Amino acid sequence: MVKVLISDKLSPLAKEIFERRGIETDQIVGLSKEELEEKIHEYDGLAIRSATKVSPKILAAAKNLKVVGRAGIGVDNVDIPAATSQGVVVMNTPFGNSITTAEHAIAMMFAVARQIPQASASTHEGKWEKSKFMGVELTSKTLGIIGCGNIGAIAASRAIGLKMKVIAFDPFLSEERAEEIGVEKVELDNLLARADFISLHTPLTDATRGILGKDAFAKMKDGVRIVNCARGGLIDETALKDALDSGKVAGAALDVFEVEPATENILFGNEKVVATPHLGASTSEAQVNVAVQVAEQMADYLLDGAVTNALNMPSLTAEESKRLSPYIALVGQLGSFVGQLTEEAVKEIHIEYQGDVIDLNVRPLTAIVVQGLLSPLMDNVNMVNALSIAKERDIDVIESKNEGEGDYHTLVSVKVVTEGGEFEAKGTLFADRRPRIVQVDDIRLEGELTENMIFATNDDQPGFIGSLGTILGEGGLNIATFNLGRHHEGGRAIALVAVDHAPSADVIAKIGTLDKVRRVKSLTF
Questions:
Q1: In CATH, which of 3.40.1000.70, 3.10.20.30, 3.40.50.1370, 3.30.1330.90 is domain 314-441?
Q2: What is the H or E stretch that residue 355 is in?
Q3: pTM score, two decimals?
Q4: Annotated active-site residue in 19, 260, 399, 446
Q5: Among 316, 366, 369, 422, which is 20 to 30 Å from 383 by CA?
Q6: Among candidates 10, 7, 9, which has minimal Cα distance to 31?
């Protein structure tokens, strides 16, 4: 009989759903690491929230475990690579608490606008300091939303209902989607300069870490108010403290912090700061939603093999998985390559298959391309939800098969159409079954994508390679491979360089100053 352990506090409905489906279920909350390690071998599934830590040691002891289900979005408490190596599927419920989190952001915006927590504390102390707590109205103010996905769009709709003007920065927000939800799509600097309130709703990635730092605060209006119910690392807390002390920022409402649990923080005690202990998803409705969803997803997988919202497994049969395995690596890298080099809102994604691959079920491959393309700027994108996220963002995904003969036994082309133009990359599998990039736009080259790479476009002129090598050498970077291509002599050229370590921002900046360099970017795979 299939058996599941619920090791964190979940709505009783989760246990009911499992048992209704014929799954034996134990709910044991508060197990120590040692106790969990001792018991986990008894179970096929593990349902958790944030308290249980699914470590490599726990996974190594989980001889029968097939799936870990996280009731919520974040999976920081699950070692996904270790789970993958153990053949354990990791699922989450990315949409179960969207409304709750958006509503908390609006509540925090009211709180910081009217200094409600401070006024409440003062009144409880019997001070009656009516003149001290002068607030501001939300009506007619401009709210700048950074990250306008599911939660950001809900927050925007609530703000519009409050008669606020809403502007949004999100590289993946199309003009059509912005018009549909009633926001004005802007660039980040424009948002910083115009917003009276700024609310963060973006995932924490390398691109968004510290997005509100010293330079960003300097570009804001005097008296701006900041709301963050997303991720703590989005804000440089030292820079925020300085901005609050100087009066640049009139107030901040924070539900998340760089280090959590946040028992100490440089912002604590600041009378301009409203703070809550990561309550964004803490409503009874949200907890019921995520509990029901995780139970249904896990039961579907354990009983029927269906996969929903998996973070480390494509929805494939065993036979399809075996046949598609080398192509999965190829299309994942192609999508990531194009995604990391795309900095404007994506309108269309064109994926063309040619050669041997057209005889396979390419639909999962298309989803993996989209997953790789969207992942650089979004959390929790996987093969299962990638296409629905693209649809939500009004991104058209066009899949086609080319039955003509080409130069390669298999060729996959990925092209994005943005508001500023088009960008395309093509890749293949060589005899060693390892992926290669063979063309970027109309320039041919051959390059294997490795962990740390530098991509540069330049005008084909003597001396560029030597200057680039000098900068990398001075930066302590060893070159692993160096792949070059050009359109014609003296024309556009491309360098795709693999290095042993990630280049610093200073190294990338120095390369960008070289004569004839048009663009340079650090890539990771």
A1: 3.30.1330.90
A2: strand 346-355
A3: 0.70
A4: 260
A5: 422
A6: 7
